[in-house]
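User: Fold this, then the next.

Assistant: Folding the first:
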Amino acid sequence: MFGPDYDSNLWLLRLPDGKPEQLTSFGPLEFSSNPAWSPDGRQIAFSYYRLPGGGGIPVPEGTDLYRINANGSGLRVLATHDVPGAALQYPVWAAGGASVYVSYMGPTGFAVDRVDSRSGVRSRIIPNAGYPSVSRDGRRLAYVLFPTPEVRGQSLWWSAPDGSNPREIVGPTTFEKYFGLRLSPDGRRLLFAAVGQPATTRPPTASLLHPLGLLTRAFGPSVAHANGDLWDLWIVDLDGRKLRPLTALSEDLPVGAWSPEGNYVAFLGGGSASSAEAGLTIITAEGKDLRRLTAQPGHRGLDWTRASR
């Protein structure tokens, strides 16, 4: 399940050799993003907003949390924004499907909230945090902790599902920023996108693109990066050890997703600055055998599940 840039719908790709299938049918003023499969593969939660019609600059009133059935039917709201301009984004289902964790952005700042999947009641779990990910067994909640006046940089943490017993994974001076956290199916590793490179892994020419990449950019199709940052995917054990890069592509805001068995990672972003290639991509969990499945960039996220039961 993924969201390409050429429309506002969600698309389904069946592996190994399927073609993208359109799952939703949203209008030109509607926008969906960040699809997340339920644990049983029968539902999809996602963020949604609608742009106002008429003249002027189109600004959505807020971003809400919706869900649909796996076949695209049964569209219904799960939780709505509480004040104008607030957004519920980057949903992830809790183990068992009883709730959905979301990143909340509003006038008072950022937070990780939990939404009851039946009642839609939202509760605050971790303030000043975002991009939640829940382990398959439901025992761990990973998230990004944002800077404070006392701590300048972003950092990675995990805790119990209710936010208790927090533990730092990667400290605030390692990377410039983080995005798109995903705990592995076995709950032992964390996949994430980051800007920058730790000093211990930075090669002597880390600030330079590979010469072939420079030639590709000079004579091949260009890739426009939405926010100007160059991102790559990384994996780290939850104890903070074995931090290693998964890609070296300088992607534009990639979002990754583990395969159900944890031996592959799929990702989607705006495209690589070093190769000028874009599209839904699969790579092994060891960073080998990269394969582009589509050729269109996408900034609206993706998720991976087994066939629904």
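Now the next one, as you asked:
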Amino acid sequence: MIIPSIDLMNGRAVQLINGKTKALEAVEDPIELAKKFGIIGEVAVIDLDAAMGKGSNTEIIRKMLRVARCRVGGGIRSYEAARDWLDAGAVKVILGTKAEPEILSRLPRDRVMAAVDMRGNKVAVQGWQEVTDADGIERIKVLRDYVGGFLVTNIDIEGTMGGFDINAITPLREAVAEARLVMAGGIKSAEEIAALDVQDIDAQVGMAIYTGKLQLSDCIAAILQSDRTDGLWPTMVIDENGQALGLTYSSTESLRAALDEQTGIYFSRKRGLWRKGEQSGATQKLLRVDMDCDRDTLRFTVRQSGVGFCHLGTASCFGEAMGLSALADRIARAAALDDQDSYTKKLLGDADLLNAKIREEGGELSEATMHKSIIAETADVMYFSAVKLAQQNITWSEVWSELDVRARKLNRRGGSKKDVRKI
């Protein structure tokens, strides 16, 4: 799979050639780049200033962690620094110069990667500025029991888009054993990314994306398989709460349009390129694209607007919405209606009443002991919470993202009891 890379210097996304010469500075804000790249999966964020000992981009990276699933590297040279990034929401941390067993062993293996940056076959450290006598393959073998993956960069071709020798990957693939291997440096084509994927190797790419040499959609398309004569890929569409909306199909053309426009665009076997909601108004904002394990099916996570996904006017092609999705839909409909008898409408317009009900129902849930009453009080809390979210124009996906960030923390809350009289 492709891992888009965002290298930061002085708060801007840049690309260096051979780790030295700044070849370009991206026009787009790094946070917007993280949103764009994050649609297809994890994004590698590398703090070049911190790696070179020339400052840091900590604050902007923290903001990027709120909008995308990021693996963070550059200048992480202690257990405490690595832990702090994991607590901040980084999916993984990447250690290079200080990727040593005594630090790595204290971190969760599945969330730590070792960066092995090489000039020739020798390891470079301190932001690629110092070449050591250490052999890259031997360093991998020393560290492979402590990390979940390796980021291996060929500095000599980094940023050149000169391509790479696929045969040179074999000894690296053997050396990492069960760990994940991510290759960076010189990658220029979707075919190269597909060749790596066949060997279960990821490609970290920066320059080729920024210059337009590579399209994210082409990289995904090169990896996907199809057993259909028309070459289309079945595409399951779900909403941000995980509810299935329907099954459609994607092509290279529709996938590129969907990622470029960040909307729900598919390939209809009858109409060709199909922009969902173009005529009905039931459009979709594309939040995420995933491939299944067999690389033959796509999953689009979307934020649906309008009457719903189905042409029959229902939320999904399987009927009306259920669970949280149905609750959110009912609240949205109530907000749109001019119905003064609607309790939901009243709550949406009266913040004091809504806040009082949230406090009341929270207390009742805490005191509930019977099976039936716990269910009823939980339903009440969820209903009033959903109204609060709608009142403040907050989506459930933002809540799920917050929970995901909290789940990544290493430092856990002690669970001390607050004095409710002070709340």
